[in-house]
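Quick one:
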Amino acid sequence: MKITIAALGAAMLACLISAASAVTSDETTNSPNALQPERSKLQAVIADVRKKGFDNATLTASLKAVLDDPAFAALSDEERHIAYFIYGGLLHDARNWVAAQGPIKTASEMPQAGAFDWDLRLANDFGLRDYPDAVAAATKLARTSPGKLSRYTDDGIFLLAREAGKLAPDVEDNFLEALHQAGWQPKNEFATADTLSLSLIRLRLAHGDTPGAKAAAAQLRDPASVLALSIDKRFDGVVRDDPAHFDVMKAYETSLADLKAKSALAPDKLDGVNTIAEQLIAMTRYDEALAMTTSALDRLKADPKAFSDAADKRNWTEDIHSRALFNLGRDDEGFAALAAGAAEKENGQVNVSQPINLADEYNLRDRPKDALNAVASLDLSNASDFGRMALQDARGCAYFSLGDTANLNKVLDYIRAHKRDGTQPYLNVMLFTGHLDDVAAEVIAELQDPAQRSDILGYLQDYAPDPHPTKRGAAMHEAWIAIRARPDVAAEIAKVGYINKYPLHLPTY
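Output:
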């Protein structure tokens, strides 16, 4: 976030300057004359901030001198507020997020604080990865200035929702209710906020707000969320009152038609192609998914500018293309597509997702050296917590196949210590390496956790068989079904949910 007129808004900056320019009277040593040198220094900094191309380091040093002066405490609240705000903003702009946090928090908690303060606080929290405070800042913005949330990506908001789920129930509740009341929806026209609504429904039921839960459930459009409600006993009352809405396969067909209509209105969006193809794979319509991705990639070969979002989405088109090919038994072409995806940038940076997915496919086909080579260049020092878990999963499976016990044990130590960062990679590597008691224990723990229950129940359903299973994949699936049948696991499932059969693509554990 740049501290410029464009970022602050001319009206807001003028208001702050006007307030900061107000001369406060005081007795004895705190008279206006005694404070004039300090006030003049602050006014000079404010004047420089209004100029284009100011030197950040020079202004930061000048403003620090103002804040460190004992006379600063005697300035008006308005003056001190703008000083803290600009100082924190300058530090944030210099990516010195640690140093920026203190002045930003001070400014945002003063009576003079407004939407810009909390916006800056949220931006700095993302830089710090201080997600608990980011959830608090986003909740504040959603309640007071929801328009500010449009500055943040859909992935950023969904990340905060996941992080809120790790915090106290009232924190998650407040965050989701604030987003819901603000009417937040993803900017991506092919996405929904239904995963957030699913958590909101759960929390409303926990508070005894059945009418509120039913109202939120009636708005669900994502078929995966419809399925989640249908298999969890907590939602029986909601589902029974509107059985037509909770027909899972009908929900998939309705969603597919809706996505196709939206994509037709945005033919330049590769994201539309990707979303439809993903859903076709989920519905085991692999030939149709392949036809869509093939057509899109052919268009890009003919015209690299055929899709306006190709720079950000092509890597995923290749990824989805590969999955369609693998499910059709065309492994060599699948690997070629994944390799092509791995060669693309991801969000303008080094690609992380496709190399890991490529390693996973090699591991399933007992090619551990190729798997390690696929991720050899990744260190994920700046990756998400889940990304690091996914990398450990890929490497751990390869080490197991190679009999590299020393490196495998390091991976197992890491994923056991960080399993809350990615339960899916944790389950996968534990299944792959035969640690079935650990898998069973984790399944039971997730079934007992209200926030995780719906997700793990989703993995436990009966799905369409893998059309071209690898030997390794088949063994893992058999182990998974055996774990589901264990008396302790089966008893826990019976307490909280149902096992249904769906003609849908078998998910990866």
